[in-house]
Amino acid sequence: MSFDALALRREFPLFAAVPAPFHYLDSAATSQIHGAALDALVRHESTRRANVARGTYRLAEAATAAYEEARAAAARFLNAADAGEIVFTSGATAALNLVAGAFGATLQAGDEVIVSLAEHHSNLVPWQLLRDRTGVVLRFLPLAADGRIATEALPAMLTPRSRLIALTHCSNVTGALTDVPAVVAAARAVGARVLLDGAQRVQHGPVDVQALGVDFYAFSGHKCYGPGGVGVLWGRGEALAALPPVVAGGGMVGEVTPERTDFAPPPQRFEAGTPPIAAAVGLGAALDWMAGLPWPAIHAHERALLDRLLRGLAGLPGLRLLGPADAAARHPIVSFDLAGLHPHDVCQVLDRHGVALRGGNLCAQPLMRHFDVAGANRASIAPYTTAEDVDALLAGLADAIRVLT
Ligand code: PLP
Predict the structure, then answer these.
(1) What is the C-alpha to C-alpha distance for residues 109 and 174, in angstroms, rounded to an integer?
(2) CA 218 to centroid of ligand 1, rounded, Å
(3) Which of 132, 137, 195, 388 has its CA 20 to 30 A from that of 27?
(4) Is 363 tagged catalytic?
(5) pLDDT beyond 90 at 55
(6) Atom of ligand 1 at shortest range from CA of 223
């Protein structure tokens, strides 16, 4: 199956706007926005701009319908049982904090939340805050030497007080995919809920939350070809319904008196105030566009580029791969350490080659510590990435090693 990444690239306005040479290898931080998402956002703002779920005039009803259609698109993308299971947030971070706040409010001191040492700070620090506020116990799943989450250690860690297992679906450092069936089986054995941080998974194709069997799923629009400022928390219907609100304001209430308030059912219970309406509409367009892509061919394309990158990196002096050395059970995110070189210096040299590369602690300091480095460089591959991008990276790295050592 062949896939034309160059043709796909032309559907992304940014690639026409930035002068060559330009090799964007930071889609794990932010993917480029697809033209359909941008058009939907602009069309909404220029033809349907009004607040949602409030006004009774036609423009407001059109805005509400477009916003609810975006919710339906997110439900289709995740194969959610019902659009009412989709909560729009400002991003994955807000979605994860929402679970920490709302699910956290149902926990008692001594209840346990399990995360791993490979989490992005967004799925670690909210749980630390919860622990410090409530006396909930935070436990850490260990990692294998290559950074994979050692899910085989989970059954022995779980106790009758284990309430939630909150893990990344795909590591933002190594690209490794978490063994979700093992996590769900272990969780079910003790009646714990499972939250997946899907921030890095969603840009590689639709997700089936029902098949995964998890309870909560979080992701950001700007990492899956949609606008910034919007994200999704999916929650299984009965799991969401059991949660109290954490942020209060307009739109999430039933009857309000000076003394007390009835709260609306999900998803409105968790969408206080004016939501990111146009961004949600743009995200809905991005998700619909993604749903129509030839994913098996794209995955073959990404796999070929990943192999090319791993082969090229293996030949560079002083380079240590952080993460699995093979292409199995991972998405195409590759982090590495260059002995004696600061990741930011490497990025600067690469920028002279027109290569946009990430460097730093990657918002995953415990994982950096596991690898015994302060920071790393990271290249991430998306469907619009080409072999020329990978080759430019490899040539730029060889140059960085030459000029910086
Ligand atoms: N989780 C993971 C695995 C991530 O990679 C990121 C962003 O890099 C986040 C959560 C947070 O996403 P956002 O900054 O869009 O809220």
Answers:
(1) 34
(2) 9
(3) 195
(4) yes
(5) no
(6) 15
Q: How far apart are CA 350 and CA 356, in angstroms?
A: 7
Write the pLDDT tens digit of every residue in 87-135: 999 999 999 999 999 999 999 999 999 999 999 999 999 999 999 999 9
- Candidates 25, 90, 72; CA nearest to 384 is 25
Return the structure tokens found at 82.
Answer: 């019902």
Looking only at Cα atoms, what is the longest distance across the chain? Answer: 70
Grouping H, G, I as helix, E, B as strand and the rest as coil, residue 232 is strand
Q: Note the pLDDT of residue 328.
A: 83
Question: How is 298-357 classified by DSSP, letter by letter?
Answer: HHHHHHHHHHHHHHHHHTSTTEEEES-SSSTTB-SEEEEEETT--HHHHHHHHHHTTEE-
User: Strand pairing of 162-168 and 112-116?
Assistant: parallel
CA–centroid distance, 220 to ligand 1, in Å, is 7
Domains of the chain: 5-27+294-404 (3.90.1150.10), 48-291 (3.40.640.10)
Tell me what pLDDT residue 1 has: 53
Residue 64 near ligand 1, beta carbon < 6 Å? no
Task: Quote the CA–CA distance of 303 and 378 in Å, as a whole number.
Answer: 17
223 with 202: CB under 8 angstroms?
A: yes
The residues pairing with 148 across neighbouring beta strands, listed in sequence order, are: none
Q: Give the closest residue to 274 by CA, choosing from 247, 235, 243, 245.
A: 247
What integer is the mean pLDDT of 240-245? 98
Question: Amino acid identity of 98?
Answer: L
Contact 102, 270 (CB under 8 A): yes
Contact 223, 120 (CB under 8 A): no
Note the pLDDT tens digit of each residue in 197-238.
999 999 999 999 999 999 999 999 999 999 999 999 999 999
Tokens encoding 44? 């909404």
